[in-house]
C-alpha cells in the first residue's frame, strides 16, 4: 500500500501536515487485509528492521504455517490474526502497509531502505504478501507478535474507540477535564483513533476552538462535537474503505478541509486557514468558524490574542 496520490498558498507536504494513518486509514487497511489476506497461509516472514520488532517470543517464524483468520483495528493499531497469533502494528508517523500481488523470492537486506518487515502469504516469488515500510530517518514503526493484543502496551492503554461513543458517553468522558479540547481528542488513553489531522477536521466541523477547555463545553457544544466526530470519521471511513491502498493517503488529503491547508480559504466561510506550530506538529483552524474571528496564540500562550 503505497504513497500519496488551488489557492493562494499550497498545502505544505512536510511533517507538520501530519499524513499519519489514523482511524479511517487503519480501518481501510484492516478491510483490505480481510478481503485479500484472510484464508491465506503465512509461508515466510522477513524481518528487515530488528528495531521495529518489539517482541522476541514468540519469534516471527512462529507465524509460518498459520492461516490468516482475521484483521481488525485497535485505535490506530493494525491487528492481523493468524490463527490466534497476532501481528500487531503501529504505523506511527511515516509507516505504511504495502500490498504485494507477488512477493520477491530473495530475502531483503536487513537495514537497507524503508522496509521493516515482509510477510509472504504464498510461495515466495509467486504468491502475494505485504510489506511494512517506514519512510524517513525517525524510525518509530513498531511491530509486536503476541497471543493477545492486550499484551501490546499501547493497546492496553487505549480508551474507548472514537466511533463507539454515544453523545452522553462523550460528555462523561470530557467532564471535569482541564486540558485543551485538541489535546483531549488526541489522547489515545482517553479516546482511541483520532490523531492530529482528524481532530482539526472535527473541531472545524463542530465550530469549536482547539484551545477550548475540554471539560467546560455546554450542551450545545457537546452536541456539535459528537455530531462532527461521527460525521468526519464515518465519512473518512466510507471514502477510504475499498480504495486501493496506494491511494489511501491521497484520499485522506483530498477530504481535509483545514488540516494541512494553511493559507488557503476555508471552504465554509472563505476566511484564511491559520496555523499554530509546535515542536513536532501543528494544528490548523479557521478563525471565523472556530474562534470568533480572533487568531490563536502560539504554544507559549494558552489564550487568544487580544
UniProtKB/TrEMBL annotation:
InterPro entries: DNA_glyclase_Znf_dom_DNA_BS, FPG_cat, FPG_N, H2TH_FPG, Ribosomal_uS13-like_H2TH, Znf_DNA_glyclase/AP_lyase, Znf_FPG/IleRS
Keywords: DNA damage, DNA repair, DNA-binding, Glycosidase, Hydrolase, Lyase, Metal-binding, Multifunctional enzyme, Zinc, Zinc-finger
Cofactor: Zn(2+)
Reactions accelerated catalytically: Hydrolysis of DNA containing ring-opened 7-methylguanine residues, releasing 2,6-diamino-4-hydroxy-5-(N-methyl)formamidopyrimidine; 2'-deoxyribonucleotide-(2'-deoxyribose 5'-phosphate)-2'-deoxyribonucleotide-DNA = a 3'-end 2'-deoxyribonucleotide-(2,3-dehydro-2,3-deoxyribose 5'-phosphate)-DNA + a 5'-end 5'-phospho-2'-deoxyribonucleoside-DNA + H(+)
PROSITE patterns noted in UniProt: FPG_CAT, ZF_FPG_1, ZF_FPG_2
Domain (Formamidopyrimidine-DNA glycosylase catalytic) ranges: 21-136
Domain FPG-type, residue spans: 257-291
Superkingdom of source: Bacteria
Disordered, as annotated region: 110-133
Coiled coil spans: none
Family membership: Belongs to the FPG family.
Name of the protein in its database record: Formamidopyrimidine-DNA glycosylase
Amino acid at each position: 500500500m503505497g504513497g500519496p496520490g488551488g489557492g493562494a498558498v499550497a498545502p505544505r507536504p512536510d511533517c507538520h501536515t501530519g499524513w499519519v494513518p489514523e482511524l479511517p486509514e487503519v480501518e481501510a487497511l484492516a478491510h483490505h487485509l480481510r478481503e485479500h489476506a484472510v484464508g491465506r497461509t503465512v509461508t515466510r516472514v522477513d524481518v528487515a528492521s530488528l528495531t521495529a520488532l518489539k517482541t522476541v517470543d514468540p519469534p516471527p517464524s512462529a507465524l509460518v504455517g498459520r492461516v490468516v483468520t482475521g484483521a481488525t483495528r485497535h485505535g490506530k493499531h493494525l491487528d492481523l490474526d493468524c490463527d490466534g497469533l497476532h501481528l500487531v502494528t503501529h504505523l506511527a508517523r511515516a509507516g505504511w502497509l504495502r500490498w504485494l500481488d507477488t512477493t520477491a523470492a530473495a530475502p531483503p537486506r536487513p537495514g537497507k531502505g524503508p522496509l521493516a518487515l515482509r510477510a509472504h502469504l504464498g510461495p515466495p516469488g509467486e504468491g502475494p504478501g505485504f510489506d511494512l515500510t517506514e519512510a524517513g530517518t525517525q524510525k518509530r514503526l513498531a511491530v509486536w507478535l503476541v497471543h493477545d493484543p492486550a499484551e501490546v502496551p499501547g493497546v492496553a492503554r487505549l480508551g474507548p474507540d472514537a466511533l463507539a461513543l454515544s453523545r452522553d458517553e462523550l460528555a462523561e468522558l470530557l467532564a471535569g477535564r482541564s486540558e485543551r479540547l485538541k489535546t483531549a481528542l488526541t489522547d489515545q488513553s482517553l479516546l482511541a483513533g483520532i490523531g492530529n489531522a482528524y481532530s482539526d477536521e472535527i473541531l472545524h466541523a463542530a465550530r469549536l476552538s482547539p484551545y477550548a477547555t475540554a471539560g467546560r463545553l455546554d450542551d450545545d457544544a457537546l452536541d456539535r462535537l459528537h455530531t462532527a466526530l461521527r460525521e468526519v470519521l464515518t465519512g473518512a471511513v466510507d471514502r477510504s474503505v475499498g480504495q486501493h491502498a496506494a491511494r489511501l493517503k491521497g484520499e485522506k488529503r483530498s477530504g481535509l478541509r483545514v488540516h494541512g491547508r494553511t493559507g488557503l480559504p476555508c471552504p465554509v466561510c472563505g476566511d484564511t486557514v491559520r496555523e499554530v506550530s509546535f515542536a513536532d506538529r501543528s494544528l490548523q483552524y479557521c478563525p471565523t468558524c472556530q474562534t470568533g474571528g480572533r487568531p490563536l496564540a502560539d504554544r507559549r500562550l494558552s489564550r487568544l490574542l487580544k
